[in-house]
Each structure stands twice: as C-alpha cells, then as structure tokens.
Amino acid sequence: MSDEKLVDVRNVNIHFGPLHVLKDVSLDIRPGETVGLVGESGSGKTTIGRAILGICHVNSGQIDFEGKDIANVAPRERTGDAARIQAVFQDPYTSLNPSMTIEEILTEPMIARKIATAAEARDRVRDLLDQVNLPADAAHRYPREFSGGQRQRVAIARALALSPRLIVCDEPVSALDLSTQARVMDLFIEIQERTGVAYLFVSHDLAVVRHISHRVAVMRSGRIVEFGECDQVTARPEHPYTKRLLLAAPVADPVRQADRRRAFQELEAEA
Ligand SMILES: Nc1ncnc2c1ncn2[C@@H]1O[C@H](COP(=O)(O)OP(=O)(O)OP(=O)(O)O)[C@@H](O)[C@H]1O
C-alpha cells in the first residue's frame, strides 16, 4: 500500500463546553485502506468520525483530505472528492427514513448532490442493490420490511451511491447478530477490493477491527495511545492499555487465544 494520504488528521482538539474530548489527535488514512479505531466507551472514537464528516466543530488542528483542509466544512459545502466522504452508522433501524421506499432512499443523495437526474438515479438503483447482494424488487419496499442485516446493506448501498473515496463506519455491525455480522463484514471487504474505497472503521470490538483493518488506532480518554499495522498493534501491542483492551476482547479463535495468553503473561511480568 502506498504512503499517499487520503485523509490526514493533524493535532485536532475538540471541546464540548468544559469537556476536552479530543486531545491533539493525529491519524491518517491511505487510499483503499481500512483504519480501525478502537477504545472504550467515551474515549472519543465517534467524535473523530464526526469531525471528518464535517458534523462536529473542530476547535484547533487540521483535517486534510487530498491535501485540502476540510475541518469545519459542513457536508453540503463540500465539493469535489471531499463530497464523497460517506457514513454508515450503527443502528440500521433508525438510520433509514421509514416513510421512504428503498429506491427513494438510494436516489436521494444522487439527486441532492445533482450528480444524476431522477431518471438516471433510478437507473442506478438496481446496480447499487446488486452491489450489496439485495434483490432488485427491494427497490419498491420500505425499511420496515427488512431485517437488521438487510437494512445495513441498504445503508451501505446509500453510501455507495456517491462513489465514495472514504466511508466512516461507526459501529456498523454492533447491532447485528454474530452470523449477520460476519456476512456484512465480508461485504465491506469485498466492496473495498472492488472499488478501492477507504474505511475508518470505528468499533469497541477488537475482534471485529482485527478482521477488517490494515492499521489500527487505539484511543483512550481522547488521545490516540497506539497507531500502527494491525498485526503489530493487536499481537504485539506496545501500550499497556492496548494489552488490557485485548485481554478484555472476546476471542473465539484458539490461535488468538494463545496470543492473548502470551500478552497476559507479558503484562503480568511487567507489573
Ligand atoms: N454533542 C456532545 N455534547 C457533549 N458531549 C459530548 C457530545 N458528543 C460526545 N460527547 C462526549 O464526548 C466524549 C467522547 O464521546 P464519543 O461518542 O466520541 O466516544 P466513543 O468512544 O465513540 O464512545 P462509544 O463507544 O460509547 O460510542 C464522551 O465523554 C461523550 O459523553
């Protein structure tokens, strides 16, 4: 993978009133790469994603996208490729407008962005549904007629409608049962291989992040405490907090269990 940066978050600070939520956060994402972002609840993961999406005020620092600072530029004011940063959120039950058909949900961003006429946008719906393995007849149905996993596929198709360079995925599989999680994760990977889209993949679940990420950033109390290649961070973590996080993560795979035992022994030895 090249060292070219698609997104370069540099020394970002965000305050919510008296709360200093992001503290000098720096992080970059390369084209076509998945950067996993893990950390306990409240550590600031979602806030980084929102800042990149332009829906959260940045107090200081820069967010360069293809070399141009997009911090504090609202989504509708973004132009060119910066307009192609999309999001998939956790809850497939509330992220889709229940009164719209799937076709309306998928065509809306293209029409709003004026990248297609209504007729052209409708023509693309079948292809978008196909890309997320949903049948063409889903177009005329409503979100309530679909399962959680299928709704998340619709949310992914909506994100794909604008041919994104980056998708901020905020806990996109956390609300799904385990077998559905695995299928949706495979879909994310397949879409990336086909389109070259990059992901910022926010999750509290290290097992999920380990499955999908090229690099992993670990957050704690508003700071990034570790950032590096996935294998390095998750199998040979430098930071004691990452080790603790690893020990707390659910692990099904016996090889990984051995990793975890080793990490635990190292941690004990250091203590
Ligand atoms: N709009 C807001 N106003 C005030 N405080 C906020 C706001 N959004 C987030 N926070 C606070 O900022 C901190 C970081 O929140 P954030 O949602 O980024 O954490 P997170 O790591 O994504 O947590 P989780 O895994 O629970 O989603 C938390 O203390 C949270 O309460």
UniProtKB/TrEMBL annotation:
The membrane topology of this protein is: Peripheral membrane protein
Query: Which GO biological-process labels does this protein carry?
Result: peptide transport; transmembrane transport
Q: Which SUPFAM superfamilies match?
A: P-loop containing nucleoside triphosphate hydrolases
**Gene3D superfamilies the UniProt entry points to:** P-loop containing nucleotide triphosphate hydrolases
Q: Which domain of life is it from?
A: Bacteria
An example of a Gene Ontology cellular component annotation for this protein is: plasma membrane
Any one Gene Ontology molecular-function term assigned to this protein's record: ATP binding
What are the entry keywords? ATP-binding, Nucleotide-binding, Transport
**Can the keyword Transport be found in this entry's annotation?**
yes
Chief subcellular location equals membrane
Domain ABC transporter stretches: 7-246
Localization per Swiss-Prot or TrEMBL = Cell inner membrane
What Pfam family does this protein match (any one)?
oligo_HPY
Coiled coil segments of this chain: none
Q: Return the similarity comment.
A: Belongs to the ABC transporter superfamily.
- What protein does this entry describe? ATP-binding cassette domain-containing protein
Source species: Pseudooceanicola albus
